[in-house]
Amino acid sequence: MTLHHITRPSSLKDNAPLLIMFHGYGSDENDLFSFAQELQEELFIISVRAPHPMQPYGNAWYAINFDAQQNKWNDVEQAIESRDHIAAFIDEACAEYPVDKTNVTLLGFSQGTILSYAVALSYPEKVKNIIALSGYISEDMLADNLTDKDYSHLDFYCSHGSQDQVIPVDWARKAPKFLDQLHIKHTYSEFPVGHGVAPQNFYGFRSWLEDRL
Description:
By secondary structure, the chain is an alpha/beta fold. Helices cover about 30% and strands about 25% of the residues. It has helices spanning about 30-35, 75-95, 110-120, 170, 175-180, 200-210; strands at about 5-10, 15-20, 45-50, 50-55, 60, 65, 70-75, 100-110, 130-135, 155-160, 185-190. It has a seven-stranded mixed sheet, sandwiched between helices. Strands 4-5 form a two-stranded antiparallel ribbon. It has a two-stranded antiparallel sheet with strand order 6-7. Strand 6 (about 65) and strand 7 (about 70-75) form a beta hairpin. Helix 2 (about 75-95) crosses helix 3. It starts with a strand and ends with a helix. The relative contact order is 0.15.
């Protein structure tokens, strides 16, 4: 399969709901996998490693570069490549593992969330639920013909830390309006933390997901 990953099998023998995790910039597949033991047993969980190794350690879905004034800019071409890799990986995972391809949830953190938004909005037919933690919608990473797509089955759980120093909360606050314009179901929450997942945030998305399995 195209992307390195680790799995936690479901308690179900077949047709399990599938949850795929995408870590943040500079991390790896073990980061979010720590959630797995606390999540519903019927979920088949896959945690994926981003394709671009970093030095001295960690991985990225796409490069983030700094100019002389320390302004950040994203390598959008790399991001779109990763978006399409993930879309292909979803198909591969559904063919390889005993899962229900109509019940696929993406869970991202930070850069992994930006990619999860891009995949869901560009390939809505491949996913059902999206848990978008500490990220934002990057419009230049989305497919061109958004208004032609069917988003009626999608549901998003979006959350952000109000004290986030890495990705400003104002960027995340634009997501609900963007999703509204496409008539996509969503919930949005903020927590009084920095760039991370507060315990109450974890319990919030876990119960949100429970209601949708």
